[in-house]
Amino acid sequence: MSSADPDLQRAAPEAAGEARAPASRRRHARARSRLRGRDETTAPSTAAASSGALDEVDLRLLRILQADGRISNLKLAAAVGMSSASTHERVRRLVRDGAILGFSARLNPNLLQAGLLVFAEVRLADTSNAVNEAFKAAVKLRPEILECHEVAGGFDYLLKTRVAHMGAYRDLVAAVAWSLPGVRDVRTYAVMEELKNTAALPF
Amino acid sequence: MNKTQPEPSSVSNLSNDKGIDKIDARILRVLQRDGRISNLKLAEEVHLSPTAVLERVKRLTRENFILGYEARLNPNKLGASMMVFIEVLLDRTAPDIMDTFKAAVQTRPEILECHLVAGGFDYLIKTRVADMAAYREMIASVIWSLPGVRETRTYTVMEEVKTTNALPI
């Protein structure tokens, strides 16, 4: 913690000059208090406390890396006005503390046989543990299923899938859903237009 | 189609239709997993010279297979730990209403995705927010205020069983 202090001081004049700094700090503080209050189930409660270590420079680094994950350390250092050594150290800390989960290339689904985006709402016949676990295990095996969420509402799971064409989607549903005993009903929603699609978090 | 790719899936066998070979596919797979890997390490992983790898990555970028690179951030540490989906039904799908809708969803960073779908409703929206209050504020100011919105259904995510952007290649 104390090793980060020189960086902080060097970056302080810039941070103070940023009009949006206080707002995002407030938002962050809100998130932190909420984390402490609610997420007691996530094992290390110290993780929530250490997330409080994110300062304005960290947030700026995260914003830049979210937009350009392959930026050179030199450019990154220049962008936040720190030495490249301390920038490197900060990024490593952000990865170690779990603020950065990883880095990925964003690939073009239209050129890689994954141009068709299809959502599916799945209802289970009974929500016993065994049925739920079997379904989740089946979902994790299939790379065409990008997301699967257990939701509160009219159905049990929302799936986001990317496939080459409808035939591939049908094969997927057959393998994941119809081969399982507990699935009552699958509703399919093919996407005609992606108005917006990003993974970038707002902060 | 006589390529022997490691994936058994029928989908990935088609990938050479699109002008990428086995090595390209391997490069894409590695970069999808580790977007910040050094060129040297990438070269080692795919058993090519660093110059040849650099040239391939440049080509894959130029030809739009690679759209960019991003850090994957932890929503729980950035005030965005609640994920909510919204289904939106319009009164009628007139072009002016759809254009207004399209413009509105671009204005809010909490809306990560918005898709026009074929089926029982018109739009599916994916949002990440700090809490229910933030969600309410967002849906009230962005969605309910729009003309032509007949109904919205909210689905709060209780558990993210799986979340990735990685394409199957």
What Rg of chain B do the Cα atoms give? 21 Å
Shape designation of chain B: elongated
Mean pLDDT over all positions of chain B: 89
CATH homologous superfamily title of the largest domain in chain B: Lrp/AsnC effector binding domain/regulation of amino acid metabolism (RAM) domain
What's the alpha carbon Rg of chain A, rounded to whole Å? 22 Å
CATH architecture of the largest domain in chain B: 2-Layer Sandwich
The share of residues in helices of chain B is 25-40%
Number of helices of chain B: 5
The overall pLDDT of chain A, averaged over residues, is 80
Q: What's the N-to-C terminus distance of chain B? A: 16 Å
Helix content estimate of chain A: 40-55%
Tally of domains of chain B = 2
Order of helices and strands of chain B: HHHEEHEEHE
Provide the spatial order of strands within the biggest beta sheet of chain B. Answer: 3-4-2-5
At the fold tier of CATH, the topology name of the largest domain in chain B is Alpha-Beta Plaits
Strand order across the biggest sheet of chain A?
3-4-2-5
Q: Name the overall outline of chain A.
A: elongated
Count of DSSP strands of chain B: 5
pLDDT < 50 stretches of chain A: 1-51
Order of helices and strands of chain A: HHHHHHEEHEEHE
Organism (chain B): Scleromatobacter humisilvae
Keywords (chain B): Activator, DNA-binding, Transcription, Transcription regulation
Pfam families (chain B): AsnC_trans_reg, HTH_AsnC-type
Protein name (chain B): Lrp/AsnC ligand binding domain-containing protein
General description of the model:
Chain B: It comes from Scleromatobacter humisilvae. Chain B: GO terms for molecular function: sequence-specific DNA binding. Chain B: One of its GO terms (cellular component) is cytosol. The complex is a heterodimer of chains A (203) and B (169). Chain A is 47% helix and 23% strand. Chain A has helices at residues 5-17, 21-38, 45-50, 56-67, 73-80, 84-96, 129-141, 166-178; strands at 100-107, 116-124, 145-152, 157-163, 183-197. In chain A, strand 3 (145-152) and strand 4 (157-163) form a beta hairpin. In chain A, helix 5 (73-80) crosses helix 6. Chain B is of the alpha+beta class. Chain B is built from five helices and five strands. Chain B has a four-stranded antiparallel β-sheet with strand order 3-4-2-5. The longest helix of chain B is centred in the first third of the chain and has 13 residues, at 50-62. Strand 1 of chain A pairs antiparallel with strand 1 of chain B, so a sheet runs across the interface.
